[in-house]
Amino acid sequence: MYHYTDLNGFISIMQFKKLWLTSATSMNNHQEVHWFKNLFYAKLTEILEHQPLSGEQIELLNSFWSAQVNPISNPHICCFSENGDLLSQWRAYADDAAGMSIGFDSSKLNLNEELAVQNIIPDNNIWLNSVIYEHDEQQRIVDELAESFVNAVKAVTEQQDPIQAQEAQMRLSVVASQCSSYSYIFKNPAFSEEKEVRVISLPMLDNSNKWFGCKEKPKFRSSGGTIASYFELEFAAESVNEVILGPKSKVNKADMDTFLRSNGLGHVEVRLSTASYR
Q: Which residues 6+ apart lie within 8 Å of 267 measured at CB?
C-alpha cells in the first residue's frame, strides 16, 4: 500500500520512520464518518415508518443515536492507496505531483486487520481497513445493521427473562460497535478511484482529560486553518519496499539513492511515475 506525500513530508517520514495518524475531523473530506451515519439514519427512518416503537424503545433508540453522533472515541487515520502511481492522488496529496509515494508492505506493520473497535491497550488499538465505496455493498451492510438494531431494541425492552434480556443488551452493544466501525471506512462512491486503505486508531479522551488507547498524548499541528491532533506511528525500515517519484519530481535517482542509503533504506526500490503530467 502507498502513502502519497510532498517532499518535506517524505524526508521527515523516512528519516524518523514515523507516520502521522490525524484526527478524522480535520481531514479534507467533510463527509468523513458521517457518510455511513446518513445512510444508517435513512434506513432506520424507513424501518420505523412500518414498525412503530414504544416510548421506552424510542428512549433507548435516542440514547443509541446520541452515542453515535457524539462518540467517545476520536478516530485518527493515516491514508494509503492500493495504487502507487495514480494521477488524482499525485495531484491531491503529493504537491501537485512533485512529491513521492511510499510503498509499504502492510504485513510488516503489525496492524490488526479486523474491523476497527476501541481498545484501551495501545498496541491493540491500531487497525488496517480497506475503504468501502460500492453503493450496493454499503446498502447491504446498512440494511443488516439497521434491522439488527431495531430487533435488539425490541428484545431488550420486551424480554421478561433477565438472562435473555442481558443477552439482548449485549447484541445491542455489538450492533452499536459495528456501526461505529463501519463509519470509519464508508466513503462516497465518487472517491472510489483512490482505492484507499486506512490505518485507524481510536484513542479516547475522558472527562478528566486523560487519554486511553494510545502510548502517548497526541501532538497538534495547523491543518487547513484549524487545529489537528495527531499520533505518531513508528515503522521498521524493512516495511518500506518502494518509492515512486512523482511526474513533476525534481529529485534525481542518484540523490534519492544516497538519501535512502543514509537512512537505512538502501534496500528500497526507486522508480519514476509513468504518468505524463507536467
A: 237, 238, 241
- pTM listed for this prediction: 0.90
Across the chain, which has 278 residues, the per-10-residue mean pLDDT values are: 98 98 76 84 90 84 71 84 96 96 96 92 94 97 94 83 84 88 93 96 88 92 88 96 97 94 97 90
